[in-house]
Amino acid sequence: MSIIYGERIRLRATEREDVKSFHAWVNDPEVTRYLSLSLPISNVDEENWFNSMSQRAQSEKTLSIEVRDGDGWKLIGNSGVFDIDQVTRSAELGIMIGEKSEWNKGYGTEAMLLLARHCFDTLNLNRVHLRVYAENLRGKRAYEKAGFVEEGRLREAVYKHGKYDDVIVMSILRSEWDQRKGK
What we know:
28% of the residues lie in helices and 36% in strands. By secondary structure, it is α+β, with helices and mostly antiparallel strands.
């Protein structure tokens, strides 16, 4: 897969040198507040994750998110498409903006738009979905801006920080994507 370029960001293949940043992010409670991670991750755990991820099908490998930084690029997070179902032409998406200095700049929305475009235009999927904690208002807003709609709620499906939270399932269909893009 080639690099996927947006207006301000790009999605590229994840490299081993990215693992150091990922490790720092997945051990930061602010970053993982709305992720399914709840326990510390060791360097070895993160290396093992990278090794297993690199064995996945090309279409399901994690993509690093980078933002323009002068004449180069700066790593700010990662994203991916997983659990691709070839029969229903559907998959789940995930994203993490780990670089907190880059929060609230619209990069999450742009990353989701690039992932959706990749899913529909490259992977030929019909439906993509994601899960977002109900408390994660910033994430939910970003997904809505990218065209995702709420399709269901898993009540008290996650337990973090001493309390239960609902998990909202959001999706976008190819027909909705095409309509958004004026096809």
